[in-house]
Write a structure and sequence with these properties.
Blueprint: E1 2-5, E2 11-18, E3 21-26, H1 37-43, E4 47-52, H2 68-81, E5 86-91, H3 93-103, E6 108-114, H4 130-137, H5 141-151, H6 156-163, H7 175-183, H8 193-197, E7 202-208, H9 213-223, E8 229-234, H10 243-255
Parallel strand pairs: 3-4, 3-5, 5-6, 6-7, 7-8
Antiparallel strand pairs: 1-2, 2-4
Helix pairs in contact: 1-10, 2-3, 3-7, 4-5, 5-6
């Protein structure tokens, strides 16, 4: 484990694996740096891969009040630590965070967004997750995780089983951070058009063909907004794609640009 100090003084823990062009992996809701380690292992033959604990998780610190910009600053610190430029891959709400970071002009060579869960533009997202946040405020962390999992489309028995994973309930308060990330830049509807329009590097948008329809729709929608984007649909896969399937797609995108 290595650490970097973010702009607000928060310690951010990360692991570095492999050699080559730097590639930062950004996990989604409830993930820590170990969650993306299997993908990092697959990518390590081609990249200098960074997996990190987003603030409030694992070995990273945190401060209050939370602000999305603080998480962007965390990524900026990682870019500096790996030499000043990097590719970035984000999964789920981590893709939302990667998009925000890219929109600020951080020196990314490539941006890869895997199913950022933007809602339909004709749905008001203002109340999304309020029941989850209420359970967190009441200290019902496990119940918050269960409800969140069902919101993502998991059947209740699987959601209950997942929420019982050791250590997962401890990360429940960071769900508020993911909701803030996905609401960042929204004015009307569920797509942050100004954020996406500001992303200049070549961008790969990924979606599984068997994922929740709103995620597939979001991928198709945002690829028309991004200035330089390519859409790849992963046939027969859903929101979580086996690393051995995903890694070659990412490697090919970076290597041919």
């Amino acid at each position: 484990m290595e650490t970097v100090t973010s702009a607000d003084g928060t310690t951010i823990a990360y692991d570095r694996l492999g050699s080559g062009h730097p590639l930062i992996l950004v996990g989604g809701a409830l993930c820590d740096r170990h969650s993306l380690r299997p993908l990092a292992d697959e990518l390590a033959n081609h990249f200098d891969v960074v997996t990190y604990d987003r603030r409030g998780r694992g070995d990273s610190g945190d401060v209050t009040p939370y602000a999305v910009q603080r998480e962007v600053d965390d990524i900026a610190g990682l870019v500096t630590a790996v030499g000043g430029t990097a590719a970035i891959y984000g999964h789920s709400s981590g893709a939302g965070l990667a998009a925000i970071a890219a929109s600020t002009g951080l020196p990314f060579t490539h941006v890869m967004l895997h199913e950022p869960p933007y809602g339909p533009d004709d749905v008001d997202p203002s109340d999304d997750g309020e029941q989850v946040l209420e359970r967190i405020r009441e200290g019902q962390n496990r119940e918050a995780v269960e409800l969140f999992m069902m919101m993502t489309g998991l059947p209740k028995p699987i959601a209950l089983e997942t929420a019982a994973t050791p250590g997962l309930a401890e990360r429940a308060p960071t769900l508020a951070y993911d909701f803030a990330v996905m609401a960042h830049g929204l004015t009307d509807g569920g797509t942050p058009v100004e954020v996406l329009s500001a992303i200049k590097p070549e961008t790969l948008v990924l979606a599984g063909t068997t994922s929740a329809p709103f995620m597939v729709d979001a991928a198709h929608r945002i690829v028309t907004i991004l200035p330089a984007a390519e859409l790849v649909e992963l046939a027969g896969h859903h929101h979580v794609v086996p690393p051995e399937v995903l890694a070659p797609v990412l490697t090919d995108f970076v290597s041919r640009r």
